[in-house]
Amino acid sequence: MKVRTRFAPSPTGFIHLGNIRSALYPWAFARSQGGDFILRIEDTDVERSSQAAVDVILEGMAWLGLTHDEGPFYQMQRMDRYREVIEQMKAKDLVYPCYMSIEALNALREHQIETKQKPRYDGTWRPEPGKTLPPVPEGVQPVYRFRNPVGGVVAWDDKVKGRIEIGNDELDDLVIARPDGTPTYNFCVVVDDIDMAITHVIRGDDHVNNTPRQINIFRALGHEPPVYAHLPTVLNEKGEKMSKRNGAKPVTQFRDEGFLAEGMVNYLARLGWSHGDEEIFTREQFLQWFDLDHLGRSAAQFDEAKLRWVNAQHLKAMSDEALAVHVEAHLKQRGIAPDARLAAICGLFKDRCDTTVALADWAQRFYQPIVPDAEEAAKHLTDTVKPAVAMLAKMLEGGEWTKEAIGVSVKETLRATGLKMPQLAMPVRVLVMGTAQTPSLDAVLALCTREQVLARLAAMPI
Ligand code: GLU
Fold it and tell me: How many whole angstroms from 227 Cα to the centroid of ligand 1?
């Protein structure tokens, strides 16, 4: 049997890290099993769904390389199909019309709460042999309720949570069609999972309560339910459930902040799954190792410092040329057109950066005027060293423009002035790069143009 998984987001807000993890795992499972991954947009909450939210889903998935084999299917475009199944269920007596008014339902609910019973529909309109139903009120469109089985349990072996059993008596008869005939959420999910031949449902554990209801509908429609894996919640850094309401960023914002897709996939993979002690791995390794047996059982907590560390490892491992492509995109957004030096600049600075934005901040100094840090300038640019800086500038006017030749000029200046390397290197870095905290002086200068270095040294306050 071919594995078929799906990601079924509701586009009611911008998907965040916690949401996209529910795409990563089913995607990885399908890929690792040679199966198919299906994207389904659950947009039936018309009021709260938006195209902008769909766009973030599509962009975020494309960025992370979570490619789908089928879809995106939009539930709003499948309404005819749901209505067709509702008709079939009516014909088979799997559903029945219920005319109970909202007021009567509310009164029932209040009474149940007062008398400490679980609020649930009481089956007034459920036809049973020998039972007389109330008279059908005139001019009222009924809802249709699913005839939930009576007695017994619904059970499944959840790949994360283990065996779960719910008594059917805990479940009341779910409304599957509203008075205007529109289908309801749990019903659409089941029709889709059947039509899309989903074998494994991997989703957030906020859906555990829906699962027994969905399983009953599966069986009523003559299908065995898929395998379920309900992923524990992702918490934010404060330990609250991650949600856009408490400030979770759209996943695409991490891209804009300079995180690499490789780093992000690695970080997300570990947020609820493990392979021994492996912390840093490639996408290929992840797909080789991923399974449903090592999903974590407890809530995972987002940790930005860890994400930055993981990203930094991937940044270091990436080729200078590949990094340059990312950095160029950031620079272009800032109106800067870099040149052939960019890859080498990336190579020189990548060890000290955890995002490509940080790398672009360094690269920018090679393409745009810099303002030396005032404090650092005051500290390093003393009257004792100024003549040495001027001497070095003079020497750099001629000769070859290579790291080696620049290194020789630096050494000669040190010899002639009796200064130590840091005494000369620090002020020169401040003047040329704006800060004293840079990689080795000769390498940095060699990546600048001669004109740039001479102009920046000449700007030394006398
Ligand atoms: N649309 C649901 C959500 O965004 C997911 C439904 C499912 O995976 O079954 O939470």
Answer: 15
Beta bridge partners of 204: 231
Sign of CA pseudo-dihedral 74, 75, 79, 85: positive
**Helices (H), ranges, 276-385:** 283-289, 304-317, 320-333, 342-349, 356-367, 374-380
For domain 4-80+184-235, give its CATH number from 3.40.50.2000, 1.10.287.70, 3.40.50.170, 3.40.50.620: 3.40.50.620
**CATH 1.10.1160.10 is the classification of domain 251-364:** yes
Which residues, at least 6 apart from 40, have a Cβ–Cβ distance to it below 8 Å?
Answer: 6, 7, 8, 71, 72, 73, 74, 75, 192, 196
Gap from CA of 38 to ligand 1 centroid (Å): 13
pLDDT digits (tens, 9 = 90+) for 294-316: 999 999 999 999 999 999 999 99
- Which two structure tokens, joined as six digits, stand for 369? 């005027």
Q: Which residues line ligand 1 (CB under 6 A)?
A: 8-10, 42, 189, 203-204, 207
Compute the distance between CA of residue 313 and CA of residue 281 in angstroms, rounded to an integer. Answer: 10
Q: What are phi and psi of 166, to 5 degrees?
A: -125, 130
Minimum CA distance residue for ligand 1 atom 6: 8
Q: Decide: pTM greater than 0.90.
A: yes
Do 39 and 236 meet the contact criterion of CB atoms below 8 Å apart? no
How does pLDDT run across 188-197, given as a tens digit for each residue?
A: 999 999 999 9
The domain covering 95-177 belongs, at the CATH homologous superfamily level, to Glutamyl-tRNA Synthetase; Domain 3 (3.90.800.10)
